[in-house]
Amino acid sequence: MNDLYTQMITVFLGFFAIMNPIANTAAFAGLAGDKSKAEQVKIAAKSLIITFMVILVFSLLGKAIFHLFGITISALRITGGILVFLVGYHMLNGHGSKLHSAEGDQETDMAVSPLAVPLLAGPGTIATAMNYSSTGELSGILITIGVFAVLCFITFICFIFSSNILAMIGKSGLSIITRLMGLILAVIGTQMVIVGVSAVVKAMG
Known about the structure:
205 residues; 0% strand; globular; mainly alpha
């Protein structure tokens, strides 16, 4: 039983560190801070449901999917890193990313990208899920999925109360947060690309 609790805590801490709900709440505030409360709840719910489904699929079928399409974690890191960098670049300039500014269904686009993929269900999260569930044992897979579901709920709570924080800091504060998060996201994206490229170079060498 102690081993089970230890495994659950290890998986939770691993997911918490890689998904970082606190930093992503600030990113959510920067991206969806100008939306109504109802829209923010809708965006938060949709993004986290998609995130959970992505991690569920990769926990169960990750290795088979990667093998089938000849995809590597490094390629996923590089592509995700470029996407995160572009989002951060637009936020750094003081406005939302053009990657999710389509007319008519903007909140849906934002929930899918960049929130669900690659910010929440990014290469690191996917790799972590595949690593924890790779034992092939049912208990390992169930713990991975269960712990991630709890983390998704915690992140959802953080997201829907982000507007309370925004109410305290005001418009100028939001502008500062947007630019700061843009810088952080650009750096995160660059780091993801560096890690991916380094892994490719190492594999070739």
